Task: structure prediction
Amino acid sequence: TMNEEGIFSGIKIKLNKRWTLSSYFDQFKFPWLAYQVSSTSTNGFDGFAQIQYKPNKKLMMYGRIRHRNKPYNTDEDLYRDIDNIVRLNQMYYRFNLIIKASDVISLKSRVEYKTYKRGDNEQESGVLISQDINIKPMMSKFSFKARFALFDTDSYNSRIYSYESDVLYYYRIPSYYNRGSRTYLVARYNIKKGIDFWLRW
Result:
């Protein structure tokens, strides 16, 4: 890729009918200046591991951990023409649970936790808890998707991104940061074959 050298390796192992292990490791180097890296010949890595459990068609859960370590300009000595380079360490943790309660209702619960440490600065963290529900009644023209989420992060640095359902041909992956809650509802009505009415609140 442009201004990047490295090696990427990934593996997926199906341990048995219920358990699946996935992992990757990315070792990279920037020969020249990069975005928010005002120095040459810097390097970093990105590692990921996930274990998934799916005993049947109605239940699926997984746990995930990711570690990113890369160069970053320091936030000190901003009056200088070229910033010093420090290490940026980020850890991501996620637990995801999907339950198909019935032929009509499915639920998805998720907990995410992130840590952010830049150089010698104090470590920051963030947490996101979300509950999704998908309702699709059989033989009905209506279907619904909704979410309620709570989040609390120390700053924008420890923000957590999460995909959100939206109207047809549109999607969003907003960043959750600071402290608060977020709720949305997506409704779809099938007027006739080939014609739908969508509403997002």
User: Anything to note?
Assistant: The mean pLDDT is 94.
